[in-house]
Amino acid sequence: MALDQVGANSDDSATLSDRIAEHVHGHTQVLLLLEALKDAQGTIRAIDTKVGILLAALAIPLPYVVSVVSYTREHGLHFSFGSVCTALALLAYLVAGFVAIRSLTGTANAAAHVKSDQRPPDVFYFNALYRLGWLDAAFNRRTTLSRRSLEEIRSAVPGETAGALSVLVNEMMILAYIRDVKLFRQKVAFELTALAFVLGILALIP
Questions:
Q1: What's the whole-model pTM score?
Q2: 199 contact partners, CB below 8 Å, separation of at least 6
Q3: 113 lies in a domain?
Q4: Is residue 148 assigned to a domain?
Q5: Is there a domain that residue 198 lies in?
Q6: Number of compact structural domains in the chain
Q7: Gap between the Cα atoms of 59 and 54, Å rounded
Q8: What is the SS3 assignment for 66?
Q9: Which of 29, 45, 119, 197 has a Cα-to-Cα distance from 167 of 20 to 30 A?
Q10: 142 is a domain residue
């Protein structure tokens, strides 16, 4: 009888130890993912800052671009090395500005790019929680209400570690897509700007 009690106590201790180990492991994973989310968000903010500076720099030669376009309209195009370089420089300049603006604009439905058989509930970012219209750009309307109630969202929040990890991993993958797209567009915008600059210099060669 005493041996049975000791065995039962040992089993209970082992189960408790397993639960503690699982909890600690899950807690470590959550902390790691939260740090990864912070790092991704910081990278995205840094990219937006750099692209904003690039757009400001692209605005400097804008008067020259307008004068070149006006001159071309008045005198027409003449096929030469300089005119070809000028046309290509203008094209690269315009595309660079477009890509830079696209880098700063929001990425619509980034969650659609996450490969998953079972998507976790959106209880981290709350994408499109409010339906906004043109009037919301100027006024704070009392009629603008959330699409889901507080009770619905509260019930969707996972109470176990595994569910919380799924939500965090999904959010990390969404941010990774946004970060990678912004990095790529930043790279293309800077490369096109450099190309426009080189072509502009070549166009000045007599």
A1: 0.75
A2: 85, 86, 88, 89, 92
A3: yes
A4: no
A5: yes
A6: 1
A7: 9
A8: helix
A9: 45
A10: no
- Whether residue 191 contacts residue 98, with contact meaning beta carbons closer than 8 Å, is answered with no
Which has the closest alpha carbon to 123: 153, 155, 148? 153
Cα angle value 102/55/66 (rounded, 5°):
105
Structure tokens at 114: 């996450």
- CA nearest 186: which of 45, 39, 47, 44? 47
pLDDT in tens, the chain (206 residues): 444 544 444 455 556 555 555 555 567 888 888 889 899 999 999 999 999 999 999 998 888 877 877 767 676 667 777 778 888 988 999 999 999 999 998 777 787 788 877 777 777 777 777 888 888 888 888 888 888 888 888 888 887 778 888 888 888 888 999 999 999 999 999 999 999 999 988 887 76
For residues 44 and 161, what is the distance between their CA atoms, to the nearest angstrom? Answer: 28
Residue showing tokens 């991993």: 169
The type of residue at 138 is A
For 155, 157, 182, 196, 197, the CA distances from 96, given in Å and listed in that order, are: 46, 42, 13, 9, 11
Helix (H, G, I), strand (E, B) or coil at 171: helix
